[in-house]
Specification:
heterotrimer, B: 99 residues, mainly alpha, Helix Hairpins, 4 helices, C: 513 residues, 20 helices, globular
């Protein structure tokens, strides 16, 4: 066994261990850490498959941004609330559905692999410069410039969408403790609107 | 090293991801499962790219990463929104599946 | 040449630029104190200006529609240099026709939002840039001739819509948005896996190249054929999810009900139109191989099953809904079923592609109009939700009831309206393709569907409201009214003079080999 194969085996083991702990761990933080391990394993696989640039991207973007974002949100909403105790009944049903779905997919995968079995498909030697920044960048900016430009629209949509959805009620206007009309006029925010609108929005009946 | 073993690994990761999506009750867990699936796709793309000899597959993987990240941003924003209004991010998937 | 390229792509470019300008207008404009919602939220500069921003967005989208018309008249094939964008964007007559439909549907939804957001005091000026960017994604999706563009465009469209669903911020609508998002990203991941397999089997990412490579793999039993089949299954699942065909429809009623009504209208018309456009292109170009389009060993029986299930299940469930909005959601699932009939018909009938485009256009104007009429029938605190809310509204507000009836009749497919000809040409294409069973099922379903559309009309015209019940009070808004007028004119025009549009739709093909 040479060094390259060892890299593959280590990477594959990291992937599987990480993936299993991602879907099994009770605590969401542990699940996110499982994803981190998977990502590191995948990055080492990318190195083995001569995709150096992607290996770097994988670490920078996934480990550096995505997992951090996950951990951030888990911490924001509290690790306990999101874990939740498994309810009796519902969880069993969902496990059965999940097992069924997985079985179907594994069957499809085995079918796929069985077709490969006849001729062992091996990787040839990699071309010089395959997967370095120059090759990927050249294709990205010369050939695939249109999807690249479209990706800007994608990112803007993601940013606006996230802001629109998660924008908080950060500056609640101070509401008076009681809804007596005269008090509200003077203690509430003095806004031209208040003079013209009925103070109470509830229907009269 | 055969292509088949890489494909087997990516298929395994994908199935684990699907299992995670279908068995989790809370939204963050489901989103993590989707992440696993996307990563399995990336392994596939890179392996095929190495096998076919062009870097198109790797560029595809770069775009796939961008897609997933954008998805995660919006998804986590929705998680926060739901948490604010309900103080709970468990999705009742019995409801989600039967509708 | 440069001018030709820019002119050709102008519908896409104008909408993208307009979205950026609207963002700037929202960020640097003055907040309008009159329209501020007393919800105590942070008020940004665009707050209270939903009406004006909606008008701006609608103008941008209608300009996009006009430019699509201009490009159509000039002929995309005559514009020098436009073919340079291939294979990433295929800017042919098919694309331009779909762009027109998308801009029209988006523009109508923005006009509706201008009235709706103001009336219901939802301070969400982000609505409009989201709709515009989502439309950019939808147009690129309709034009996508290559997997990279396809996925980027698909996600651009979808992410905008996920955010739109969550804008109402009630617990129910947040949960609907999150569910829609989770199921949507799950479907996208499945489809992405399918695309990766496709690339592995063929070594190509452009649809035409994939099509040729699949034809070359042909009858073989090698690894390639199995990969192609699995990829086909995964891609079809992903697309069926986007067009909300049964059994991939479970998100639809919740998401449609939870979203603000203009966003529902946008989802129902634009997302569905773009998804059907890309479905036709992917199935006919990439999976257009003889073996995969044959009834015995390809996608037609799968899609036919989806079509029958969508029409039947949706029509049966729609009749049992008590909420009109939910009923319209199920009606949109049923309409996806009719359009799927036409997609199946493309295997044998060359006219089927045109019938899909024409059907999508008629569906767009009727559905946007129906949701608009639903918006018009309610006002803040007195929304029209259930059938009972609409009881006797014809006496109190005859114009609203008349408009609603017109769009419902069009959705049901009653003769002098657009919907009748849409359905007629779909079924004609199905008969051409010798799909008699599908045609009969579709016709029977149209009859069943008429029941729940007519039930709304019966409630509006023949029922008296129960004493003491809260009544829906129609709102007053020039924006909503103008959107309804535009939609009504188009519904009648397409119903009385369908010929020109139909001839145009007939020459807009995806150019399969």
């Amino acid at each position: 066994m040479n060094a390259g194969n060892a890299l593959f085996i280590v990477g594959a083991l990291l992937c599987l261990v990480g993936a299993l702990s991602t879907v099994i761990a009770r605590s969401p933080i542990r699940a996110a850490m499982g994803l981190l391990i998977t990502i590191i394993g995948i990055a080492s696989l990318f190195l083995k498959l001569s995709a150096q640039f992607l290996a770097a991207i994988q670490i920078i973007v996934y480990a550096g941004a995505v997992v951090v974002l996950f951990v951030f949100v888990i911490m924001l909403i509290g690790a306990d609330t999101s874990a939740g105790p498994p309810k009796s009944g519902g969880s069993v049903g969902s496990r059965i559905v999940a097992g069924g779905g997985m079985a179907v997919l594994s069957g499809l995968g085995l079918l796929l692999l069985a077709r490969f079995d006849g001729q062992p498909v091996r990787f040839g030697p990699a071309a010089v410069g395959h997967g370095d920044v120059e090759a990927v960048g050249g294709l990205l900016f010369r050939e695939a410039i249109i999807p690249f430009e479209l990706a800007t629209a994608l990112l803007i949509v993601a940013v606006i969408g996230a802001i629109a959805v998660a924008r908080s009620k950060a500056r609640p206007r101070p509401a008076p403790p009681e809804s007596h009309e005269s008090k509200r006029l003077f203690h509430g925010p003095l806004h031209p609107r208040d003079a013209q609108r009925p103070l109470s929005k509830e229907p009269a009946e | 090293m055969p292509l088949t073993s890489v494909l087997l690994l990516s298929m395994a990761l994908f199935c684990i991801g699907v299992f995670g999506v279908l068995s989790r009750r809370n939204a963050i867990g489901i989103l993590l499962g989707v992440e696993l699936m996307a990563n399995a796709v990336n392994i596939n793309l890179v392996a095929f790219s190495r096998f076919q000899g062009g870097v198109v597959g790797q560029v595809f993987a770069v775009f796939a990463i961008a897609l997933t990240v954008a998805e995660v941003v919006v998804g986590l924003a929705l998680v926060i929104l739901l948490y604010r209004s309900r103080k709970d991010v468990r999705v009742d998937e019995a409801n989600a599946l039967s509708g | 040449m440069t001018f030709d390229v820019v002119y050709g792509l102008s519908p896409l470019l104008v909408v993208a630029l307009g979205a950026l300008l609207l963002m700037l207008a929202e960020a640097f404009g003055k907040p309008n104190p009159q329209g501020l919602a007393p919800t105590g939220e942070v008020s940004d500069a665009g707050a209270g200006r939903a009406g004006e921003l909606g008008m701006g967005a609608a103008v941008v989208l209608f300009v996009g529609a006009a430019l699509s018309l201009g490009v159509w008249l000039a002929g995309p094939d005559n514009l020098v240099g436009l073919e340079l964008t291939r294979p990433y964007l295929i800017w042919d007559r098919f694309t331009v026709f779909v762009c027109f439909t998308l801009c029209l549907g988006g523009g109508l939804s923005c006009l509706l939002a201008g009235g709706y957001l103001t009336e219901h005091e939802i301070d969400r000026a982000e609505f409009f840039p989201l709709v515009l960017f989502s439309t950019v994604g939808a147009m690129a999706l309709a034009a996508a001739g290559e997997l990279l563009t396809l996925f980027v465009a698909l996600e651009t469209m979808s992410l905008g819509v996920y955010a739109l669903v969550g804008l109402r911020r009630t617990p129910r609508s947040s949960e609907a948005a999150l569910k829609y998002f989770l199921l949507g990203s799950f479907a996208a991941a499945l489809m992405l896996f399918g695309a990766a397999l496709l690339y592995g089997a063929t070594g190509r990412t452009d649809l035409a190249g994939i099509g040729q490579a699949i034809a070359a793999i042909g009858q073989g039993e090698g690894p390639g054929a199995a990969q192609v089949l699995i990829a086909l299954v995964l891609v079809v699942v992903g697309l069926a999810f986007k067009v909300s065909a049964v059994p991939f429809h479970m998100w639809t009623p919740d998401a449609y009900e939870g979203a603000p009504t203009p966003a529902t209208s946008y989802m129902a018309v634009a997302v569905k139109t773009a998804a059907f456009a890309v479905m036709v292109r992917v199935l006919l170009i990439a999976f257009g191989d003889e073996r995969l389009t044959s009834w015995a060993s390809g996608w037609p029986p799968v899609l036919a099953t989806l079509a029958v299930a969508s029409m039947t299940v949706a029509n049966l469930v729609a009749g049992r809904q008590s909420s009109v909005k939910r009923m319209l959601a199920y009606s949109s699932i049923a309409h996806a079923g009719y359009a799927l009939v036409a997609v199946v018909a493309t295997i044998r009938s060359p006219a089927a592609e045109g019938s899909i485009l024409f059907y999508l256009l008629t569906y767009t104007v009727s559905t946007a109009g129906a949701f608009g009429a639903l918006i018009l029938c309610g006002s803040r605190g007195k929304e029209a939700v259930s059938y009972e809310d609409l009881a006797g509204i014809a006496k109190r507000h005859p114009a609203a009831a008349m408009a609603f009836s017109l769009f419902l009749l069009s959705l049901a497919g009653v003769p002098p309206t657009a919907g009748f000809f849409g359905k007629l040409y779909v079924f004609q294409a199905a008969i051409d393709a010798e799909l008699y069973v599908l045609t009969v099922v579709g016709l029977l379903n149209s009859l069943v569907g008429a029941y729940y559309y007519l039930r709304v009309i019966v409630f509006m015209y023949m029922r008296e409201p129960a004493p003491g019940a809260t009544l829906a009070v129609p709102m007053r808004s020039g924006y909503v009214a103008s959107a309804l007028v535009i939609a009504a004119v188009l519904v009648i025009a397409l119903g009385v003079l369908p010929n020109v549009t139909l001839e145009w739709a007939a020459i807009a093909t995806v150019g399969r080999s």
